[in-house]
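Journal club side-thread
Mid-discussion, someone asked how the predicted structure for our own chain would compare to the paper's figures. Pasting it here so we can look after the session.
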Amino acid sequence: MTTTETTAFGLGEQELRERLQRELIAAMRTEGDAPTVHALAHSIARILEEDHLRMAEQLEQAGVKLH
């Protein structure tokens, strides 16, 4: 009998939402507590970067060489 283990690739949906919420709150505070487009764009870009770093780490752990 074989067992199959599944792991989320990158950040999971719940984790993405939670991190985006925290990032957006922090960015809005920097912008004077205003929900600006800049704060939103900054938050999304930061979370995408974290997601890509997590995926790269997971790929490397699986033996995939990245350049």
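Post-session note: The radius of gyration is 16 Å.
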